[in-house]
Amino acid sequence: MTHTNSTEPARRKQRRQPGRPTLLTPAVTDLLTRATAVGLPMKQAAGAAGVGRSSFLRWMRVGEDVVEERQGGRLDVDSPDPCAALYARVTRARAAAVVRATGSIEEAARCAVVSETYRTWTDPITGETRSERRVRRRPGDWRASAWLLVRLDPEPRSLDELLDEEDARIRAERGENSTERALTPHLQELAARLQKTLAQYEYEDAVAAGADLGPDPTS
Length: 219
What we know:
By secondary structure, the protein is mainly alpha-helical. Helix content is 60%, strand content 11%. It has helices at 8-14, 26-37, 42-49, 53-69, 82-110, 142-152, 159-174, 178-208; strands at residues 111-122, 129-139. Strands 1-2 form a two-stranded antiparallel ribbon.
């Protein structure tokens, strides 16, 4: 006699769908967004929301794919997909945090208002009420500008280096091999010599035809 387990279908129904973000609730999304908005790294932000860093990163990766493939790259904080909404909110929150921090650094480099005081008094001669605003500022700090410059361009390169890099990229796209790269200077020299020879032939032909062109420009 064969016995069947009546609870087996129920267990199968209770199994979770693979990859389903069961922990990604609206409350967790809010906590992750607020934590990243103040500049916390991914690990600390995940801890503040009570989830693992790997889960946070997985949700962000899935959300990025949804944004690129289904939403045309548009960051929609109200997306019906929870991962896409999380990715949009976190991305925009981190960008806003960078804007605020960069503005503070720029202000510190330039100068900043330390305090403002207002004084009101009555003119003893005219009897009019007058007010005065006094602003005290601190001097700018060049170190803030230096820090910001390094962050914006950590590896500054000269124009020649950038041109060489672009030239190498173009050569790689064309499939130019090392032998062709080695021959390039010789080909350029050969082209210059050929151009000079052609110019000399044109000059000699013109002189032979009776034209007075003066001394040979190629000599």
